[in-house]
Amino acid sequence: MRAVVVPQPGDAEVLTLAERPDPVPAEHEVRIRVTAAGLNGADLSQRRGFYPSPPGAPEWPGLEVSGIVDAVGADVQEWRAGDRVCALLSGGGYAEYATVDAGLVLPVPDGVDLVEAAGLPEVAATVWSNVFGLGRLSAGEALLVHGGSSGIGTMAIQLGRAFGAQVIATAGSDDKADFCREVGADAAVNYTTQDFVEAARAFTGGRGVDVVLDIVGGAYIPRDLDVLATGGRILCIATRDRTPASVDLGLLMRKRATLFGTTLRARPLTERVAIIAAVREHVWQLLAEGRIHPVIDSVFPLEDAPAAHRRMESSSHRGKILLRVG
């Protein structure tokens, strides 16, 4: 099969199309003939040499795919050859075939295009497990989403609104802020010209926000705490700002706040399976009903993976970037 591999760490040009053996599903796995794969920030980190595949996973990138079940292991009961599915992977999505534990597979929701479905598993699992799992966001609360125009951001905005929260998004330009409002944000802040702390306080009448979804880290963390309401929760899921974060513990205690730092890929299989089950229960019907939808920026052929990575690194994208494989 064809796969996009990383012979050595570097810029986008190191991504190379190569031949690799077709994977064979273990007893608890399914094999998917990949239609499309989603790009994620972790793929860029892996390409640069900062985030290697976990033990047992393919060495090439790709944390989510959509496609057709091609073969199933002896212990697999739910899935059959020919099923239209998408799946959360530990790696190996940039290829014509991928194997994955059957518990990490989801049916393509009714009304969702098979290619576009590749942009759902990672963002849905990340947002649900953090904002609604650890963050316990509930109706009537206020959610602040950093990077609102990203794949994660667009899903967080939509799910926050669907479950009755007020959503404030940050973005890096007026156009992107407008885009966040189009996706469903109640308010959007261009962080290059506005202070998101002041803007979020003004929007909430000075109360502050209940939950912050932070993909930046670093210098954003103390500002997240500043804008947090009493009893609020901060979910830090990435560190685009790699400078050390400084936390005022006194303020953290006075606000009775909670700061979580989480990743998805490194969680034990049992936890990821539970997250996928929760996503299927709580999110998939919203997709089938058209209340939320995948937000796709662009689709590149598999052989144009370097161009796809360059687009993601440019931060000019809005929503998910996909690789079309089959």
Q: Which SSEs are present, and which pair or pack?
A:
Blueprint: E1 2-5, E2 16-19, E3 29-38, H1 41-47, E4 64-72, E5 84-88, E6 97-101, E7 105-107, H2 121-134, E8 142-145, H3 151-162, E9 166-171, H4 174-183, E10 187-190, H5 196-203, E11 209-214, H6 220-227, E12 228-236, H7 249-254, E13 258-261, H8 269-282, H9 284-288, E14 296-301, H10 305-314, E15 320-324
Parallel strand pairs: 8-9, 8-11, 9-10, 11-12, 12-13, 14-15
Antiparallel strand pairs: 1-2, 3-4, 3-6, 3-15, 4-5, 5-7
Helix pairs in contact: 2-3, 2-8, 5-6
Verbal overview:
The model has no long low-confidence stretch (mean pLDDT 96). The protein is globular and about 55 Å long. The strands form three sheets. Strands 3, 4, 5, 6, 7, 14 and 15 form a seven-stranded mixed beta sheet that branches. Strands 10-9-8-11-12-13 form a six-stranded parallel beta sheet, with helices on both faces. Helix 2 packs across helix 8. Strand 11 (209-214), helix 6 (220-227) and strand 12 form a beta-alpha-beta unit. The protein has helices at 41-47, 121-134, 151-162, 174-183, 196-203, 220-227, 249-254, 269-282, 284-288, 305-314; strands at 2-5, 16-19, 29-38, 64-72, 84-88, 97-101, 105-107, 142-145, 166-171, 187-190, 209-214, 228-236, 258-261, 296-301, 320-324. It has ten helices and 15 strands. The chain is α/β, with parallel strands linked by helices.
Low-confidence stretches: none
What's the shape?
A: globular
Give the helix tally.
Answer: 10
List the secondary-structure elements in sequence, H or E. Answer: EEEHEEEEHEHEHEHEHEHEHHEHE
Q: What's the total count of β strands?
A: 15
Content-based structural category: alpha/beta
Gyration radius (Cα, Å) is 19 Å
Percent helix among the residues?
Answer: 25-40%
Largest sheet data = 7 strands, mixed
